[in-house]
Amino acid sequence: MSAGLSDALKIRSAALAAHYPRKQAALLPVLHAVQAELGCITPEAERDVAALLGIKPIQVREAVTFYTMFRRRPIGRYHLQVCDNLSCGLRGTGAVLEHLRRRLGIEPGQTTADGRFTLTTVECLGACENAPCLMVDFEYHGNVDPDTVDKLLDGLV
Amino acid sequence: MSVDKRLLPADGETAELRRLAVYEGRGGYAVARRVLASLTPAQVLDEVKAAGLRGRGGAGFPAGLKWSFVPKGDEKPKYLCVNADEGEPGTFKDKYILGHNPHLLLEGIILACYAVGIHVAYIYIRGEYEMIARRLEEAIAEAAAAGYLGPNVFGAGFALNAFVHRGAGAYICGEETALLESLEGKRGWPRLKPPFPAVVGLFQSPTVINNVETLANLPGLIRDGAAAFIALGTPKDGGTRLFSVSGSVARPGLYELPVGTKLREIVFTHAGGMPPGRTLRAVIPGGMSSPILRADEIDVAMDFDSLAAAGSMLGSAGVIVIDAEASMLTILKKIAAFYAHESCGQCTPCRLGTSWMAKTVERLASGEGRPGDLDGLVRVASNIKGRTLCPLGDAAALPVQAVVAKFRAELEAEIERAAEGRE
Predict the structure, then answer these.
(1) A143 touching B, CB under 8 A?
(2) Check: CATH 3.10.290.10 for B328-422?
């Protein structure tokens, strides 16, 4: 095993695996923990996770590439995820997205040159009561418009 | 007008119901404590069957009947999987139970597990609800510390452990067999049924899969009895529903109302009607997968059977309101794009059909429409419908067909305008 994963992460992974009769079941929770620590899931991390859970690296790769929340490459310091689904669309997500494009100078899927922001469009985030909504990392922001988005970004260090 | 809040904190309630002490102060856990002390599992099952409690996730299958398919006896471990994946666009109800009233869910889990003889429950929560998952873990820790979960629940000699399991961004994992695959650490590819999960489910063991809202109904149902539960709603579909109302409406939000409340009343009375200056064009009544209704079709009662008779579905009760200024072509585009993105890729008709539909609508919107495109869309949808392992195929086909059938004139006008804009 390579030296990739920290001891704390290995201990955490073992604790997660104990929740299930088969260790493989801990794969998603362990990958969340890995991504939270490393920022993304590298091929080395995939091999380490496979060894921890007693499965093949390809089985880890299958999960990493199937689930949209897992990333194989690093992203910017802040991850802006803008809902582009129906309810948000009916309440102005288009203007928010257009504003972010212009302000950041990037398209969805890209990261600013200074590495601060990654912009992504996502499907329904389950916050349609506050449409349009977006997430900054795991934090929800609802009823956003270009002005509130400006204030939000200005407040991020 | 309003009903007692059975699933959510009462209006104006400021105390944090998610705290065990507050929940217990409101009478919480009294039902589960009494049941474990004085009722047999069969009595709980009978009461839930008598109430006809129908699943709140989308399909509306009676929960008691589902439980009764689990083989008796302890030869194999049995599992409860709580479906908290909540991915249906326009739906945000389970989030409120999970985040604001998690002990109600845990009490429902205790009741379900006791009735079926289950000792391990996994709560599969969508990955984006990371903060809510943490709150839920706090609630589980509080309940375990009080002896309401763990090796000896309420000192009644019943063991039950509950674990939170986060998904990672895949709509398909709300489908019950995809959820099982995902929980086992695999891609979320639905399984062929039969065998049904009640017999061969998680880790090849008998498994019950229930939606969050379904389980949260159990404490109230058992407390008041089946007759009272039925009286709240309709004879075949009792209780209340959490209606998620969003889109072009004055007061978007979550409304707990009796099953069978008229869609018009939900939109115009509870959610405040249209925003100033807007008129109603259409409503999607049960999450994006449910066929759209025209403005003149919203006098329908919001229960499973009435909506089925109206050619749509109650589904997850996610009500999306659409005004006359909205572009129907854009709505069609978002619907088609969503299913193309979320098709798991296992079944060819769905994998190819959804992306074909999405590309066609994209082309129409960019001004390159050709005669017969709308008919082609409907044809592709027909070739997906009924030809896939899981309901995602139908979920992709039905809304596309309904939008084309009901708003053809609007779509054709928009397609023409888009084409003129290009010339």
Answers:
(1) no
(2) no
